[in-house]
TrEMBL record:
Pfam families: Pyr_redox_2, Pyr_redox_dim. Keywords: FAD, Flavoprotein, NAD, Nucleotide-binding. One of its GO terms (biological process) is 2-oxoglutarate metabolic process. This is Oxidoreductase. The lineage of its organism: Bacteria, Bacillati, Actinomycetota, Actinomycetes, Micrococcales. Residues 389-495 form the Pyridine nucleotide-disulphide oxidoreductase dimerisation domain. Residues 20-337 form the FAD/NAD(P)-binding domain.
């Protein structure tokens, strides 16, 4: 049920007030999924968004970045197969690549996403939300402010934003973040990238494919420091093979921009030097987008992640009305895992607050307690966040992993053994590409006889990941995996070779 009234604010001005059962802050992919699930049992749902409906993934992250990376991957795949390779001439057409990217972002027009909200019965209010108290917010917009009241729950799904380190001159040099890198209209002749995480390495590949000279500065001693070391090494070798000037142990100490471009003073193993480029991309990390939400009005720290339990309920807010999901919690940093959490939180909110959710003879408090107790044994629990988070990096080679790395497993006190196999030795890989190069590794829990982590590198390595995710999430005994017969000749035959190598 929705209510709309006119009230007066503290200055006597009229303030439009709307009341919904559930209010979702953020209409990205995560917020959309949470809103959809929360409303499936009849609750009225309002989504508040100050930018484009569809969020970061649709317009500045997942979709445009992969659209930029895919043409180079296809070209490399064709060149690896004699008979096709002879027909491949020249390099990518940057204008065509960017035009196809524009199609994937709907030319930064969210009309289609708004239509989906309408079709799902989800209301949209455009503006910037700020808490004024428990279950109460003010949404500021150009055409006036609106007071918003949530009867039952507020779900924070505002995502994250890039951080720009305090290097002297960097902010004044108008650096790119991931948004500018994925929305570029013209490819620069040269680009320097700060940071060796997912955004840094993917954009290094994309811009090399598009013809830019790329320098990648990494403060540490490897790229992708959350991946297995062998995967980091293979990606680094792949970047250098593409012509990326990759420098480890190197950071910028000063940045200046003039009419010729950007000039960075850098310090590294060889001492101090300079790097010059048309543009500089900052890819050094992200932070939760909570600084301007007015979290102090509900007892939380602005700018910090919203800590949640496995039902995605905020742990530091009383009465069980505040939830958070996606990047803003610090639990997850991918769209697919955020959407998983969104399905969980939407189901939790629908189950707790929809009419008829309480059992006969139970009051609201008892019903909520029963639901929370049941959460440990039902789908209303974000358990995959702890054991089976999948990650894909669309570099060349691709890297895909799920679960714990070998070191993480040992740090958790598990008695594990890592088993590797060269994917190129599998018949299906030799059919897929001449000179196929890649590695498969599984981390075996010796005491329980299950796989707790897996990593794959190589062309289209991401396609191997779902089987591993099922094995890790389902804790499938490895003696049962013997009976999961891989088709021949496919790259998936590497699963059989891993079991053989493990002596199982």
């Amino acid at each position: 049920m929705t209510e709309r009234t006119l009230e007066q604010d503290g200055d006597g001005a009229q303030l439009d007030t709307v009341t919904y059962d559930v209010v979702v802050l953020g209409a990205g992919a995560v917020g959309e999924n949470a809103a959809d699930r929360a409303g499936r049992l009849g609750l009225s749902v309002l989504v508040v968004e100050h930018e484009l409906v569809g969020g970061e993934c649709s317009y500045w992250a997942c979709m445009p970045s992969k659209a930029l990376l895919r043409p180079g991957s296809v070209l490399a795949a064709a060149r690896a197969v004699p008979g096709a390779a002879e027909l491949v001439q020249g390099t990518l057409d940057p204008a065509a690549v960017l035009a196809r990217r524009d199609e994937f972002t709907s030319h930064w027009d969210d009309h289609g996403q708004v239509e989906w909200l309408d079709s799902a019965g989800i209301a949209l209010l455009r503006g910037t939300a700020r808490f004024t108290g428990p279950k109460e917010l003010v949404v500021e917009a150009e055409d006036g402010d609106t007071r918003v009241i949530a009867r039952h729950a507020v779900i924070v799904a505002t995502g994250s934003e890039p951080t720009v380190p305090g290097i002297p001159g960097l902010a004044e040099a108008r650096p790119w973040t991931s948004r500018e890198a994925t929305a570029v209209k013209d490819v620069p002749a040269s680009l320097v990238i700060l940071g060796g995480g997912v955004v840094g390495v993917e954009m290094a590949v994309a811009y090399r494919d598009l013809g830019a000279e790329v320098t990648l500065l990494v403060r540490g001693d490897r790229v992708l420091d959350k991946a297995e070391p062998f995967a980091s090494d293979e990606v680094a070798a792949g970047l250098r093979a593409l012509g990326v000037d990759l420098r480890f142990g190197t950071g910028a100490t000063r940045v200046e921009r003039d009419e010729r471009g950007v000039h960075l003073t850098v310090s590294g193993p060889q001492g101090e030097g300079e790097v010059h480029a048309e543009e500089v991309l900052v890819a050094t990390g992200r932070r939760p987008r909570t600084a301007d939400l007015g979290l102090e009005a509900v007892g939380l720290e602005p700018g910090a992640p919203v800590a949640v339990d496995d039902a995605l309920q905020a742990t530091a807010v009383a009465d069980g009305w505040l939830f958070a999901v996606g990047d803003v919690t610090g639990r997850t940093a991918t769209t697919h895992q955020g959407k998983y959490d969104a399905r969980v939180v939407g189901d939790v909110v629908a189950a707790r607050f929809s009419a008829g959710s309480a059992q006969p003879g139970e009051g609201a408090a008892e019903a909520q307690a029963a639901e929370r107790d049941a959460a440990a044994f039902t789908r209303y629990r974000a358990s995959a966040d702890h054991v089976a988070v999948p990650q894909v990096v669309f570099t060349r080679p691709e890297v895909a992993w799920v679960g714990r790395s070998e070191q993480e497993a040992r740090d958790a006190g598990l008695r594990v053994r890592a088993v590797q196999y060269p994917i190129g030795s599998v018949a299906g890989a030799s059919v897929a590409a001449d000179g196929y190069s890649g590695t498969a590794q599984v981390v075996l829990d010796e005491d329980r006889g299950v796989i707790v982590g897996a990593t794959f590198t190589g062309p289209d390595a991401a396609e191997l990941l779902q089987a591993a995710t099922i094995a890790v999430t389902g804790e499938v005994p490895v003696d049962r995996l013997w009976h999961a017969v891989p088709a021949y000749p496919t790259v998936s035959e590497v699963w059989l070779r891993l079991l053989e190598t493990a002596g199982l």
